[in-house]
Amino acid sequence: MTSVLQLSEQAGVVESAITSRMSARAYTGQPVARETLEHLLEVASRSPSGTNTQPWKVYVLQGASRDALVDKVCAAHDALRADPSLAAQYREEYDYYPEQWVSPYIDRRRENGWSLYGLLGITKTDKDKMHLQHQRNYRFFDAPVGLMFTIDRVMGRGSLLDYGMFLQSLMVCARAHGLHTCPQAAWNGFSSIVLPHLGAGPGEMLVCGMALGYADADALVNRFVTPRVPVSSFTHWVNRS
Asked: Which of 77, 104, 204, 212 is least surrounded by CB atoms within 10 angstroms?
């Protein structure tokens, strides 16, 4: 029989994994064993999904396959900067962000972006530095493992909710094993490059990418901690009968 102390210790481990999770943007070159990755994915597969549809499909990129995708997408990112008219070729298949930003969301977005760039000494006029920092996404922030997540286009919006729970489970489990992650919607605009590289089927849609590895504890960028609003600001206690 599990004691109260054991339950408390287990809760502490779970809570620590959740609260210490962050979007790490710099990694060491330390490899991650395939057995570890398979274990993380097996645990994450216990995530809930509507009527147990389990809509996730995962592609793991390491070594040459990872590096080749990095080269392709970084080249496209550079070309897009040189010729913005190419944007028509690189459109996201679903709207991750709203078409029109409103407060308080735009305020949080701006705070997040400029706090990160400010830490790195990048100002609004440093277009070259901004481009290179954004391109760090397409290098998986030097993480040795790149993950790509797809879903069959026939699935409904609810499956994206299921997917979010799967991704969170994966990231929290990774933390419990001393790893860090960074979920990345930045890849979505280059799905026309990513999906063929993965060998994904014609009915699949890119959901997001993710960097996974051991965070570089000495990297300045990993000192960035995003703020959270207090529980009282988003919670409503409904006491009416």
From this structure: 104
